[in-house]
Amino acid sequence: MAFKIGFAAEQPQEQAEAAYTPPQQTATPRRSVVQVMFPNRGTRLAYYNDKFDLHPGDIVFVDGKQEGQRGRVVEVNYNFKIKASDYKRVVAVADIEVHGQFHMAGSHFVTFDPAVLPCGKVATWYMAPRAKDGEYISGCDDTGFLLEDLKGFQVSEIAAERGRRYYLDNRVAYLCIDGASGYAIVEGGSPYEVDFTYRDGEISRLTCSCSGSYNCKHEVAVLLQLRETLKLIEKNYATKYRDGGYFAAVSKSILFSVAIDGKSTGCFTL
To answer: Is the terminal CB of the chain with fewer CB neighbours within 10 Å at N or C?
Structure first.
């Protein structure tokens, strides 16, 4: 039996556009000093904020030594007097509002609505906006291989085994196919983005944002997760996928830790 999970906020959401648009700041940000907890580092630090209307539970990124690390706001103080040069700042806030219907698919939830969990939204959970000099460039040829038979994927035995371990450890946090375009986020030492083309069972134009200049463990993990997820979709939700040509899959633990932990209102149904 295929179970459905629905998430709903206290206020109903208007129909979203398929393309992701970052939420706009609707109120003038109140200057504050916020306490931010960094779970991966086991530390809690104070930051000055003058860009965002922050609340406890918000996921943020900062500058300084914790740059690139995902932190969660645990306290907001509006009464302060500080020397600005002594404090690092909040530079970005993640869009953690999630509304829509999800379906069970093994270790992941899947949605077939492009407006529910677009890749641009999920990217804000892992990465602050890149500086202009931080943009990636890429190149690839048109050679491909069948997803069902990964023997055509040229990768070292070490990378293949490490990628299999990443897959088994549920490191593929997010996976999306829109038409023929594929995108994934893999949790490694840092979050890495994997892009690919998937058409008629064939993978091509596979690239990863990690520092390796060759086929890597992150790509292996994505391929294994993609193969598993597509099999579950074909078994349980084939019509939904074929009708729209789109799905997004998110790790169950990631969805709960980002979109639900830290919230004090809202509901979900099972």
So the answer is: N
- Say which residue the tokens 């306490």 belong to: 35
Residues of the chain with confidence (pLDDT) below 70: 1-19, 24-27, 131-141, 262, 268-270
Instruction: Quote the radius of gyration of the chain (alpha carbons, Å).
Output: 20
The predicted model scores a pTM of: 0.86
Contacts of 197 (CB under 8 A, 6+ apart): 144, 180, 181, 182, 203, 204, 205, 206
Q: What is the pLDDT of residue 128?
A: 84
Of 89, 72, 49, which Cα lies nearest the Cα of 263?
Answer: 72
Question: What pLDDT shows up at residue 138?
Answer: 65
Is 8 within 8 Å of 260 (Cβ atoms)?
Answer: no
* Structural contact between residues 99 and 8, judged by C-beta atoms closer than 8 angstroms: yes
Q: What is the distance between the alpha carbons of residues 247 and 40, in angstroms, rounded to a whole number?
A: 29
pLDDT at residue number 26: 62
**How far is the CA of 88 from the CAs of 40, 52, 130, in angstroms?**
19, 15, 18
pLDDT of residue 1: 40
